[in-house]
Amino acid sequence: MKSVKEISTESKILGRLKNHPEALELVTYLFDDDELQEMQDYANNVSIRRLGFNDHGPVHMRQVVGNAIKMLNLLQESGIQTSLEEEKIGTFEDSMCAVILAGLMHDLGMAIGRQGHEEMSALLAQPIIDRALMHVFPNDLHRRVIIRSVATEAIIGHMSTRKIHSIEAGIILIADGCDMTKGRARIPMAINHAPRVGDIHKYSANAINRIGIHHGENKPIRIDVEMSAEVGFFQIEEVLLTKIDSSPAKKFIELYAGVEGQEKKCYL
User: Fold this and answer.
1) What is the pTM of this model?
2) b/e burial code for range 45-62 (CB count within 10 A of at least 16 → b)
């Protein structure tokens, strides 16, 4: 059964896709997919209860999709083409479908473990990607191939440990880094256990109040991070900024962060 947060996030995603009928059909199919839901739920169980990490489950993966869709729309509104568009091999709709697939499946590999979970995510995602694309594009092999390829690149590249080349994969990398608010750390913070290496990720994420993604002043996308305490800068500098630096979409990003009530620091 889906949580209230999952349902709320899905509603926002569907609203952002009202002008993208094929992407809307794809994400609706995936939201109704029982196997994908079970895989997301189990990955989150392993992440939080077995490994002691933050949320890597259905809410997180939906948040990443929402962030990525918002960023792609901002690029389009600014006249920036995706890699598939620029290479004249695909459409904006194809790029949108690729980031939806990647966002909803990039952390499935957490069901197996943290190490190498990007590759495991890609492996586990392939059967679902194939049948979802066959549902939306049953008579278009070309589109199924290019969308699957870009989605797989984005899944494998979302930890900035592997070189990626497309704008689409770069957007997923940043969209993933942008999901670091206190809500993501709520469950692991509530589970009592002895102090362990890596706890800084939970405490720093718990200091992030809000993240805004909107039009930038000098670049297409501005990311604004507001935090309650300076420990949140760890998330900015060790997680988000690292991902942006590794992203082919870095040149389109402005990044500001600061403690509530204080002047924000400009990183990019």
Assistant:
1) 0.92
2) ebbbeeebbbbbbbbbbb
Say how far apart CA 42 and CA 120 lie, in whole Å: 14
Residues 231-257: pLDDT tens digits? 999 999 999 999 999 999 999 999 999
164: left (phi > 0), else alpha (psi -120 to 50), else beta?
beta
b (16+ CB within 10 A) / e for 104-124: bbbbbbbbbebeebbebbbeb
∠ CA 179-185-186 to the nearest 5 degrees? Answer: 125
Return the percentage of the chain with pLDDT > 90, whole number.
Answer: 84
Cα torsion angle, 194, 180, 38, 113, sign: negative
At residue 179, does pLDDT exceed 90? yes
For residues 152 and 162, is the Cβ–Cβ distance under 8 A? no
pLDDT the model gives residue 90: 98
The answer to whether 205 touches 180, Cβ cutoff 8 Å, is yes
Last residue of a domain, one of 177, 197, 222: 177
CATH number of domain containing 135: 1.10.3210
Query: Last residue of some domain: 177, 200, 223?
Result: 177
